[in-house]
Amino acid sequence: MKGVNVIVHLASPSGFKLKDPELVMKITTSSIDSLMESAMKEPTVVAVVLMSSMGTMLDSTKEAPYQYTEEDWDLTAIEAAKKHGMSCLGGLVYRASKVGAERAFWSFKDCKPSFSMTAINPA
Fold it and tell me: Does some domain include residue 63?
């Protein structure tokens, strides 16, 4: 990472064969933690961008019309993935892991990094 100015994190385990939500969530959050810890140590980093997902915000318990903001998290995805365990559908595992990863990402904001942080949540 030495000399890097901008980091764009695009990787995430995905696929309908993902079955272990605990493992996938651990992998996604630990990869964010590792990336951000390294970025915090490199003075040349000016920006970190996370490719997240609109699914991190969507919550089926909200009634339409509802305007989502950066305060919204789909915590039901994490709860459901943990509840269903190994019988969980891959799409739900993916969505829960994206919620966990983005929450881990934003937790580094409290460390007052010297670089900007941006999460993109495409639909």
Answer: no
